[in-house]
Amino acid sequence: MPDHAKSHPEPQPTSFGDVAPHYEHLMSSVPYRFWVSYLDRLWNRHSLSRKTVLDLACGTGTVSRMLAARNHKVTGVDLSGPMLAIAREKTEFERLSVDYIEQDAAELDLPGRTFDAAVSLFDSLNYILDPARLAEAIRRVYEHLVPGGSFIFDLNTEYAFDQGMFNQSCTRREEPLHYRWRSSYSPETRICTVKMTFKFHRQDGTTDTFKEVHRQRAYSKTEVTGFLSRVGFDDITIYDAYSTDAPTPRSDRVFYVAIKPVDTA
After folding, report:
1. What number of CA atoms fall less than 13 Å from residue 232's CA on the CB side?
2. What are the C-alpha distances in Å from 189 to residues 16, 82, 215?
3. Fold adopted by 3-159+219-259
4. CATH for 161-214, options being 2.20.25.110, 1.20.58.1970, 3.60.110.10, 3.40.309.10
5. Distance between CA atoms of residues 16 and 209, nearest Å
6. pTM for this one?
7. Rounded to the nearest 10 degrees, how much is the dihedral formed by the CA atoms of 7, 8, 13, 14?
8. Three-class DSSP category at 133
9. DSSP 193-260
10. How confident is the model at residue 172 (pLDDT cuts 50, 70, 90)?
């Protein structure tokens, strides 16, 4: 293990606590099938194998289940026990097979397991606030890939944080879950803090109110490609989200495709 991996601070507590039971409703507008189709597009574009897939920061397992339904052998890893409990319940209900494991991305350790492909979607890696821990998470993914294996992940950009793209709200009367998010971004720390208030209106007329604070860090393309290349990835491509175009200064989300060399001796 490299020296920089020995002194990492403890991971941030998971931000997905009280919101976990409502997460799927909150994400109901996300076009999951489109995201998985985009994964296929990138895998095909780079002629990548994906028989076995590691879904890192899998949350409630929607992408994991979609991949399993496409006959991929999937392992889902997430730090949040409540989210994984929902993932297991839904996977069993759909009669699919996904192996879910509760682990922090920067401490990924699956002895004897390697994968053709790893993915981490929905800006999950932005939640790693310490650059050393992100570098370590990338290193550990690399170690769990077969030669020629790939790691595809997306990140929110500094432009997205600076433009306040986390400022969102939903107060539609027909929706049981109302929320209000307000963000602030510090260019000095490169941390975006999002204060979230949720109100869940029950059918019996009662209301549950809870709050969460989410933090994400902006990483530059230079930083991320440096982390990737230092652990051994030698084929790295960056795309403007959902396209095969290069990112622009106004890209709010970018995707990385990193491929492990076939000859790693």
Report:
1. 21
2. 23, 30, 11
3. Rossmann fold (3.40.50)
4. 2.20.25.110
5. 15
6. 0.86
7. -140
8. helix
9. EEEEEEEEE-TTS-EEEEEEEEEEE---HHHHHHHHHHHT--EEEEEETTSSSPP-TT-SEEEEEEE-
10. low
